[in-house]
Amino acid sequence: MALEVKSLKKTYGDFSLSLDLSVGEGETLALVGASGCGKTTALNLIAGLAQPDAGTVIIDGEDVTALPAHKRNISVVFQELALFPHLDVGGNIAYGLFIRGVTRKERRRVIEETLEIVHLPSSYASRRIDTLSGGERQRVAIARSLASSPRALLLDEPFSSLDAPLRKSLRREFLEIRSHSNAPCIFVTHDREEAVMLGDRVALMSGGRIVEIGTGRELLLAPKTQETARFFGAGQVLPCAIAGKADGREGDIEVSTPLGNLTVTQGDSEYDPNAPMLFIPEDAIHFEASDSARLKSFSARFTGSLFEGKGLLLKLLLSPWGNSQEPLPFEVTAGRRMKAPEPGSTINLWVDQSLVKFVK
In CATH, what class is 3-224? Predict the structure, then answer.
């Protein structure tokens, strides 16, 4: 069973969406992006809650584009959850089965089974919705989405209204809950950490289009575009100038950068020859030298710091580079126990050239 979206298009005023994607059986695709990029519009089109101007939605080889939402057998968990307040927990979970005429005995079996999957006691079947906590309501909404054995599962920021500790806990639980269904799943979120944690693959969306798609690890450590690198914030993007092919390994390129002259391996990355850019991952910056031949030293002026919990963010200025007369801002995250340098002082750092990548 797989979900395919081919050349799906929709225009609302001056906003235009154009979407192509595929989600395999049992796979979760995290669709991530800033507010207004088209994530929810994409889900509505796939679910049949809105009609596309063009394109097709295919589930398990069947074109369902012309089918109304209630005939697609796609489960959707909305941000607002949309639980029925006049029904108890069991009634909410089995509502789709009731509509389809499934027997009461079978409905009771499914209710017990799905409550167990989402880690709620069977006694909750008779509980009123307004007596549940936020996390319990989330579990009920997910249980309802699984109860009808959907052909595809769509979730629209289901954890966004929860406090941080509960959200983190439910993310872990979702990974286990998800294993009980082989339906292809699209999980919409604006949270970078959530996307990387829950998605087998992650698709970054911007302006109604997918900018880049890959595993979370790939988008964090080796993005192919500037937009992806900046969105995930796992490093810095800097301009450079191509000096020519480097001596040594095939594919190595000598570049002039604000960090000095570096040797970068192009690999499968691409760049704009008129304005090449580099991605410097966070873990490419070292505070001490080593014997590695790939480490290259550079210096920067320290201007301030910000303690972020996970570490100490150092705000730096690099020397003017190229045609610019202004120093370039550069940020580095150090260990949380590091003592901040004196403001205005010059510090020495090292960059691991083997981790630096070109981005378009």
Answer: alpha beta
